[in-house]
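Morning - adenosine monophosphate inputs below, output right after.
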Amino acid sequence: MPIKIPRAPKKAEKKPAVRTGKKFGFQSVKGMHDTLPEDFGYRDKVEKAVKKVANFYGFLHIDTPILEDAKLYERGTGLTSEVVEKQMYTIRTGTGEYVALRPEQTPGVVRAYIEHALVYSYNPGKFYYSGPMFRHEQPQSGRFRQFNQCGFEILNSNDMVYHAQIIEASYKICQELKLKNVQVKLNSIGCRNCRPGYVKKLKEYYKDKLSKICKDCTQRYKDNPLRMLDCKNEKCVPFKAEAPQSIDHLCTSCKRDFKTVLEYMDELHVPYMIDVTLVRGLDYYTKTVFELFAGEEGNALGGGGGYDYLSEILGGPKMPGVGAALGVERLIGTMKSQGVAPLPPMQSKVFLVYMGDQAKKRLLSMLEEFYEAGITVHEAFAKESLKAQLKVADKEKAEYALIVGQKEVFEEMVLLRDMKNGSQETVPMKRIVETIKKKI
Ligand code: AMP
């Protein structure tokens, strides 16, 4: 006799009385956020796109520790960059080590390339990464203290084709995610030879405006004048339009390199515009700098540029590089605002339902048989009633429920229920995996 299936209960199961939400004593630390299962459909989609693009362009996966020697960033990212000066989480350990939670990944990748002499295996070295970064910023929309970046680095080549390829790969991720209106802003900030002359011109221009610009910019004037062009303060914005432009002060080789990058960009059909005020926040950038935006959204999706001297600054060999980093949360934010669907949640077409302890034990071994056959099956073993288990199966949109009670265990049979039309059949246990394989 088939097992009678009770109808799903109308009332929700009573929730246990526990302190949840705000009543619970702990919350995530300010600026840090949980990624809940419902968000992983977006995050996994980003990861999938990154992997696909990276594989296509021949970038190899690399990961470096979240904790690094703090001096790596002080020297590499630069003491005058906001990231190091104001936002870096540093720790003095009990044994006197001075370490930092990585605020970005480029110096770590460069360190690893030199430390492991990867130049002998990968030249140029083309790497991609994805992982959490930490910056003690003021949290706001699209700005967190722990956030994820995915990015690319190309080391030991000064071929401008790789400047274009890094931009192309970053753009391709946005395309893979079906983001609309993505645009690249580009500029060149020159090299060691031409930048000092340009900075001198910039300082001359700002000299008589020091009393009119914001406090941060008066400091930038002394430490890092280029960053004045990056300032969003309303006091400073009007002065940017008349400020001298780096592309007018490039040396012959930087001018040629920038022209080459633009020619490659034209070949690649990546929509770009030149933004003469684009300078980027990290100190090591040279030559090409760029940022990606989606439509009118104010926050950049990502950015990057060349860093010809980073290796030398860290005490390594002469080794030009170029890289880009995209903010995963920013990509996800844009996916959401543009209505891009996440990956569907992991679902199982088959659901195991038990009645009684013996059946539960038998289903445990059946679960393993399905695993061996490569078929995903779900269960709700913590629920006792048939009704509650079928409710979960229904919620998970399972197509088949495999129901086993004491009688079925005894007869070595399984009751196979089609969840769509409610029809049921009995199948010998030893043939159940094979039967399901045919059905799904
Ligand atoms: P950067 O390493 O500063 O060049 O930043 C590259 C990208 O990382 C940015 O364009 C953002 O998409 C993302 N990003 C940087 N800082 C944050 C932050 N505090 N919160 C979220 N995303 C960030």
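Note: The chain is about 35% helix and 20% strand.

O.
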